[in-house]
Design a protein that fits this description.
Layout (H helix, E strand, L loop, with lengths): L6 E9 L5 E9 L5 E6 L2 E4 L4 E3 L3 E9 L12 E6 L11 E5 L10 E6 L6 E4 L2 H6 L1
Parallel strand pairs: 1-9
Antiparallel strand pairs: 1-2, 2-5, 3-4, 3-6, 6-7, 7-8, 9-10
Keywords: Signal
Protein name: Glycopeptide
Organism: Calocera viscosa (strain TUFC12733)
Length: about 130
Amino acid sequence: MKSLTATLLVIAAAVVGVIAESHTVSFTNNCGYGTPTLIQGGNVLSTGGAYTSNGPLGAAIAYLQTGGCGFNGEGCTMVELSLYNPDTNNGMISSADVTLIPPHAFSVTSGFGYYNGCDGVGNDCSEAVQCRQR
């Protein structure tokens, strides 16, 4: 079993009512340093605390700011995510991935998981080679 020694992004998607939609992004930082950061459209949504979107959360990024990351996660391991309830967004689906595409680079163990709908689905990257293979 893999041991996460850095940061884990936990994505929780919950449907409230028939039409309402909400998604919560929370962080578990096992590094003992750095600041988990969630950004969407150039706006910082969270620097460590849980963030709840009362609607779709599209084109967001998350990373552990260790002091060497650019504002958009440049130079660091980054998670890209879009969270949608397909019943209220014309069939759009949630997606997330760990990216090392330049200018991003492996910096810390990172991962994500879905809860309250797709339990057990996610990805953990504990080394650069593993992240590239997925």
